[in-house]
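Researcher: I'm preparing a figure for a lab meeting and need a structural model of a single chain. I don't have an experimental structure, so a prediction will have to do for now. The sequence is pasted below. Please return the structure as tokens so I can convert it later.
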Amino acid sequence: MDYLKITKVEDVQLEKRQSTRVGTLHLTTHQLIFRHPQEELWISYPIIHTVERRPQASNGLWPLIIRCRDFLFVTLSVPNEREAIDVFESIQKLTCISSIEQLYAFFYKPQSLGSSDGWSIYDPEKEFDRMGVGSTTRAWRFSTVNRSYSFCSTYPRTLVVPQKISDNVLTHACKFRSKCRIPTLSYLHWSNMASITRSSQPMVGLKQNRSIQDEKLIEAIFQSNALPPTPTGQLVYGSTATNLIVDARPTANAMANVAIGAGTENMDHYKNCSKQYMGIENIHVMRESLGRLVEVIQTADAQGIPVKKYHLHKSSWLRYISSLLESSLLIIKNIHVNNSHVLVHCSDGWDRTAQLTSISELCLDPYYRTLRGFQILIEKDWISFGHKFSDRSGHLSNERYFITSSANAANNAFNSMQNKLYKQSHVRETSPVFHQFLDCVYQIFAQHPERFEFNENLLIQLHYHLYSCQYGTFLFNSEKERNDYKVATLTYSIWDYINSNRKNFLNPLYDEGKKDKEEMGDQGVLFPESDWKKLKYWAGLFGKRDEELNGEELIDDGNSVAAKSLWRSDSPLPRSTSP
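Model: Understood. Here is the structure written out token by token.
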């Protein structure tokens, strides 16, 4: 309460999406709340991206422009300057906290949640047993080499590795992988025991280092579903011997890492496999692409004009979503069609790697398209394998996100602030990596709506709570950190909220897996459309109707006026609100 200079302001004007209301603003320790007889708006402080305090407007009010990470854009206009300053400084202090333990999740006490197994919903031994580890196949084993997180602090405690590889070999192999993130199992395919494994980049460096242990580990992975030896004594690796090492990065980026002692595999040392670069851009490119996309939408909102779709295309956002889907499609085909293995890595193996493994597994296994299975997928490939949620989501904000504009600079203040922010180290760690995963899931859902038990509302809520910090699930950067800070004891899981309100997240079009079981069908494996021209902007996430961001638009190309179109859905699900 020490940070609250003011707790209540009357006669505050709220402007939101071309609507204006006058009501009462309440400031609490963890949220600001605007109340009006016809509307109540809650904004949690961690979800606030930027706040700009502008000079007195022509109507005599003092505006505060608030941009949120869930793409809510509002203006709160306060009756007098002193109150505007107090509100601005209170929000700043309560948003720019110094430790994750000060976030709302550590104080949130829901009145009742019908579900209480959120923290135990993912049991790695049960999940890998479901895939066939130890039952359908004996080629894999559970390793306890990381039980105290001393082997790799960013990996989960439980690792699944080839049966023939000892923990001693793993201990030597880890020295050759960035952050000791060795190749380890993420997924076994139900039809052929082909595997998706994941790791970080190898530490090749300018001296072209190699590791016999790393090579043996990958060889064992690629032999794990081998058929019996042929009469000549040769092993058959899958049906077409197309085992792949998928490097998610652009080739030039991978090569550049050689100069800092890392790089990519020298394929002269790895047997019975090939390597492909996916060309997926890094976190900085993705962050700037989203920034351009949001700027187009929010500029149109501020001016009260339709969104210019050709400006949206200039953000390249759908092209980047397309690259993720196209890369996943390669993995899906290699696993399901070619009966072969795939090892996926990027640089550190917690951003692009998590995107590709989880998207591929969602398409390969119908279980992950159920409400519970999707929760387990996120727990496994994102939370346990050390995606840096706190860093990428910017859970600890910075005072540089708060700006006071002068009268002459008000119009350009935000753009100037954005340019400065991009150069700051605390901002350069943020990126919409998990957002892109959710967007890819949305694209596949839009293409195959009857194949998902859950609906779009679930994806929107997950994006919201990624930033709300109301639950502990997406806090910190690794399983070890969450254990160290007793997150499962001191906070509530997002899955308890989801499962307590299950009916809100069920898809009425779901066919209960009927198509997955059709004898002449696709066997439950989805092959997503990846052409960016056939993808769509996720309108519901931005609080828009589908036709506002997708569909036809007349564009003057300088020579003639042509109609440009983007594939769109005729029945978008409504955006959800969450207090």
